[in-house]
Each structure stands twice: as structure tokens, then as C-alpha cells.
Backbone:
């Protein structure tokens, strides 16, 4: 049994047995923030290299009869369904904060994730013929991080002064790239990584 919860509902999360991919890490971070007990089940993806070509890895997730597999949707589901468990501010405290959080979730999925995921995949599963593409992805990521740096100079976290789902979804890719030492001089969401994890 994993998770921190005591008396909280139990959900099931499935992940690759050899490593925790960013999509799974995103869901696990959300479960920990909401203090939800979970069972982790390991399996093996048929081809980890094919994950490089996809925008997300499936994360089979069961909560009773509810089945989801996209990590951001799972995180939204957890934050909404278990609103009164664990950390209370993942979705903000009102409609305006929720709109800001949703805006940053969209930005993460469509602007931050593509280059940061490519860099993560390059670090985890290096291929000889991808050097030019990785340099292009690093350049894209640096442009995205300039926007983030500006935002984080105005507030402690992306959607305001509290840690929210907007910040949480950025953690896995940021953490893996920063921990690898391959991020060079790139700034990886200092407000988020520095003060939360």
C-alpha cells in the first residue's frame, strides 16, 4: 500500500516497472498532495521508445468504477473528487483562480510539455540521430521558460501565491531535467521546485 492517507479512499495506479515516467509522477504527486491512499501496480510498456513520439504515456487509473488514463485529467479528477482531503488549494478557492489554473494547465500541456518531454525522453532513452532535434527542443524550452520566469517574478507560483495544480503538472519534467544536470543554465520554475519540493 502506498500513499500517505489514513482512512482516505484507495485508488489504483499502474506504471512501468523499470522507471516512473513523468505522466505517472504527475499523478503520484497529486495523490500525495491530496493525501489519498493508493495501490501502485507495475507492468511493462511494450516499447518505451515509442513514448517519445506520443504526447503522453497512458497511466491506467481506477477509482472504483471510474477509469482514466491521461495524467492531467486524472489530476483534475483527484483534485475535484477529493477536494476536502489533503492540500486544499490545488484548484484554487474561487472561479477566477480556477480559470487562471486552467490557463496554466493548457499552457503546460501545449507549450511547456512538448520540448521538456522531448528533452526528458532524450535523457532517458538517448538515440544517436536526434542531436539536432534536441538542440531545437532546448531552444523552444528556453523561450517558454522566459515566460515562466517573468510570471514567477510577479507571484510566488504560476496561478498566484499558492501552490496549485498549475504548478504540480510542471514538476515531473522540470525535476527530471534539472536532476539530470543536462538542463544547462536553464531555470526550472524556481518558485515551484525551490519552495515546494
Residues:
Amino acid at each position: 500500500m502506498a500513499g500517505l492517507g489514513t482512512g482516505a479512499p484507495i485508488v489504483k495506479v499502474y506504471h512501468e516497472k523499470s522507471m516512473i515516467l513523468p505522466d505517472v509522477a504527475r499523478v503520484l504527486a497529486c495523490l500525495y498532495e491530496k493525501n489519498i491512499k493508493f495501490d501502485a501496480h507495475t507492468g511493462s510498456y511494450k516499447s518505451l521508445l515509442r513514448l517519445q513520439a506520443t504526447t503522453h504515456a497512458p497511466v491506467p487509473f481506477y477509482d472504483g468504477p471510474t477509469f482514466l488514463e491521461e495524467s492531467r485529467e486524472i489530476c483534475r479528477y483527484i483534485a475535484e473528487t477529493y477536494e476536502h482531503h489533503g492540500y486544499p488549494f490545488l484548484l484554487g478557492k474561487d472561479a477566477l483562480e480556477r480559470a487562471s489554473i486552467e490557463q496554466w494547465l493548457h499552457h503546460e500541456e501545449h507549450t511547456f510539455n512538448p520540448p521538456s518531454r522531448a528533452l526528458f525522453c532524450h535523457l532517458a532513452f538517448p538515440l544517436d540521430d536526434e542531436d539536432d532535434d534536441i538542440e531545437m527542443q532546448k531552444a523552444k524550452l528556453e523561450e517558454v521558460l522566459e515566460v515562466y520566469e517573468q510570471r514567477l517574478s510577479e507571484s510566488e507560483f504560476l496561478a498566484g501565491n499558492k501552490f496549485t495544480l498549475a504548478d504540480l503538472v510542471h514538476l515531473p519534467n522540470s525535476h527530471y531535467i534539472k536532476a539530470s544536470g543536462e538542463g544547462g543554465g536553464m531555470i526550472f520554475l524556481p518558485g515551484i521546485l525551490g519552495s515546494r519540493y
In short: The chain has a mean pLDDT of 81. Residues 95-195 form a domain with the Glutathione S-transferase Yfyf (Class Pi); Chain A, domain 2 fold (CATH 1.20.1050.10). The two ends are 23 Å apart (CA to CA). The CA atoms of residues 12 and 39 lie 5 Å apart.
